[in-house]
Amino acid sequence: MRPVIALVADVIADPSVHTTPNTVDISPTMFKDTILEAGGLPITIPYPTDPRLIPETIQAYLPLFDGLILPGGPDVDPTRYGEEPLPALQATNPPLDAFELSLIKATYAAGKPMFGLCRGSHMLNVAFGGTLYQDLASQNPAALRHLQATSGEYPTHHVSLMPKSRLAQLIGDTAYVNSRHHQASRTLGAGLRLAAKAYDGTIEAFKSEDNDLVLGIQWHPENLWQDAPVQLTIYRDFIQRAAAHRQPMGLAAASPAR
Q: 198: helix, coil or strand?
């Protein structure tokens, strides 16, 4: 039986729908296809518009999935990690931030693996007490170009994997990756360990120190594996971990987040 992998939905404006508001909950097709190819069964979970419904919504979702993917999306509200907004900060989505932070804590408490990509890795880091660059280019002028101008399925810079790390065992000591972000993890949260970095020192991946429940990466292997099959092993490993931590239906409700 395939492990069920939940993918948090984003919300975008849809001008083709003649209702008010003209918004739609979405998850990109590339994630669905990659999860299926790697052996998982994807489901999309939208966040409630009313924040008062977040706790009960999360408790209802938790028994339904074995692993959680947090995808890319808008900037993270800097007040979530103790900063005021800088001029280069782009649009945020406070309801999504609130939902994902609560979901991360509940999923971790329930012992289910989590995989964050791009913004998703930022949310994982913030949930564990880490901080972000609100805008990497303006806050670190020595940084490489991390918001690539070319199409997102093409790699544009290299990353160095930490020796003997699980990620290095999967894809090697270096990787050529795509890069579609202007924010980045700045300091890692409690219990997180560096797993990869760019040649300018930017954090490109991290994992949990004491277990295998947390992985955050800055790039998008779901866009790369068709031409670089080794990138699919990152998803396969995550889905295998989700299967290993699978809990009987009805026993997956989380204890209160720590």
A: strand
Let me know if 122 is a catalytic residue.
Answer: no
Catalytic residue among 100, 118, 157, 182: 118
Is the pLDDT at 55 greater than 50? The verdict is yes
pTM (whole model) above 0.85? yes
Would residue 209 show up in a list of annotated catalytic residues for this protein? no
**H/E segment holding residue 24:** strand 23-26
Q: Which of 122, 157, 182, 220 is catalytic?
A: 220
Tell me, yes or no, if 222 is annotated catalytic: yes
192-212 in b/e form (b: 16+ CB < 10 A) is beebbbbeeebbbbbbbeeee
pLDDT in tens, 82-134: 999 999 999 999 999 999 999 999 999 999 999 999 999 999 999 999 999 99
Residue pointed to by tokens 């001008």: 15
